[in-house]
Amino acid sequence: MIASMDDHRSRRMSRPSKSPSKLTNRRALAMMGGVAVLYALPCLIAGVLGGRRWLVTVGVVVAITGVAWLLCAHFSREEVLRPVHVRYLREFFPAMAGYVVLIMVSGTWVPRMESVPARVALAALPLLPIALLIRAMVRVLRDQDELERRIDLEAIAIAAMSTAFGFFSFGLLPLADIGWHVGGPTVAIWVMPCLFAIFGIAKPLVARRYRDHE
Amino acid sequence: MNNHVRELRGEQGWSQADLAERLDVSRQTVNAIETGKYDPSLPLAFKIAALFGRPIESIFDPGA
């Protein structure tokens, strides 16, 4: 009885006053979603007005991600973030901010550069924040608790297998000669967004298996 | 595997969040252990046993 009353109390409020960090999952997701949507809007406007397809694509992807984060913030239960996840966000945000800036710089300036080494350096520039993002993900994977790690690893396995399956299928379809001609670089660029997107969908589904009476 | 974590936590008057903080795990992990959705690793099971001051076999049993 005491335990069930406790659970009820804990369901309503997860002791924010006792935690060293006041940042909650909902607040973090809402912040990330808001920033993403705010970033996507000028991309979409500039892309449509300037007739730049890549900018429209970036805007659409970022907008979808932002809306997904806002929906997650709306539907998830308020929980105070543990220090390991606060650290992850501290590493994630600058890396993501760096990426969105550098992808714009790269996309805008690479076609205008004459020198090949400068073009290569500029084209590869967005890889630096992506490497920092991967580092942040590996660190959080190592330092979170065992169930969180298990859920993340299961979701990563599902995402990796689904992405590989999807791209392999995509590679086989041209054999049917149905008029699809997509360039290799375009396909390669979409591997990572697909991986992250499927991970984002798979994680809550995997986590559901470990939830009960919440 | 069955366990008595929920009862023991109730005896102490702790919420799931309180226990999670003491074990340095998330509240969802405590909930998953209590409801039998997740069996903790040996180190975490020993940590739980040490926290409640009981032998591990009196908290966890493999069930029938």
TrEMBL record, chain A:
Key words of the record: Membrane, Transmembrane, Transmembrane helix
Taxonomic lineage of the native organism: Bacteria, Pseudomonadati, Pseudomonadota, Gammaproteobacteria, Lysobacterales
Stated name of the protein: Uncharacterized protein
Residue segments, region Disordered: 1-24
Transmembrane annotation, as ranges: 28-48, 54-72, 92-110, 116-134, 155-175, 187-206
TrEMBL record, chain B:
The keyword DNA-binding is assigned to this record: yes
HTH cro/C1-type domain segment(s): 5-59
Stored Pfam families: HTH_3
InterPro entries: Cro/C1-type_HTH, Lambda_DNA-bd_dom_sf
Keywords attached to this entry: DNA-binding
PANTHER family (alphabetical): DNA-BIDING PHAGE PROTEIN, TRACRIPTIONAL REGULATORY PROTEIN-RELATED-RELATED
Protein name as catalogued: Helix-turn-helix transcriptional regulator
Lineage, highest ranks first: Bacteria, Pseudomonadati, Pseudomonadota, Gammaproteobacteria, Lysobacterales
